[in-house]
TrEMBL record:
NCBIfam families: HepT_toxin
Transmembrane domains' residue ranges: none
Entry's Gene Ontology cellular component terms: toxin-antitoxin complex
UniProt similarity note: Belongs to the HepT RNase toxin family.
Keyword Kinase: no
Organism domain of life: Bacteria
GO molecular function term, any single one: RNA nuclease activity
Protein name per its UniProtKB record: DUF86 domain-containing protein
Length: 140
């Protein structure tokens, strides 16, 4: 059974990260490229929000006894296979994991056009994931 207090605490933290990002969602690409302080705020809060989503998924899988994910991506496939999230959401979250990996492991240079796109169009995906968790596990 999912530990509601753990998941709700994670959700609260992610919502804080999202509120910090919301303040920056209309920033221009040029401003983002040239302002290192804004870059730090945006990239750090994106990383934390995505990591929080990963942590929630991992916690749910563990508490429900659904095995152990072999990779971060597999967390979202397991949640999909167990009917917690839909395939479309699984793919969106897996894309977020890929972006997080670029941030954390510096696989490639950060493409700030992608960062702007996430800020303007995909923060809602994280909110949707959180709402799905709240509804599926009756946390609200």
């Amino acid at each position: 059974m999912v530990n509601k207090s753990v998941v709700l605490r994670k959700i609260s933290f992610i919502r804080h990260n999202l509120s910090r990002l919301k303040d920056k969602e209309n920033i221009s690409l040029e401003s983002l490229k040239n302002d290192f302080d804004i870059q730090d705020i945006v990239l750090h809060n994106l990383q934390l929000a995505i990591q929080g989503c990963i942590d929630i998924g991992s916690h749910v899988i563990s508490d429900e006894g659904w095995g152990v994910a072999g990779s971060l991506n597999e967390i979202f496939y397991i949640l999909q296979n167990k009917g917690v999230i839909k395939a479309e959401m699984s793919e969106k979250m897996i894309s977020m994991v890929g972006f997080r990996n670029i941030l954390v492991h510096e696989y490639e240079t950060i493409n700030f056009a992608i960062v702007c796109n996430i800020l303007q169009h995909h923060l809602k995906d994280i909110n949707e994931y959180l709402l799905t968790m709240v509804n599926h596990f009756n946390l609200g």
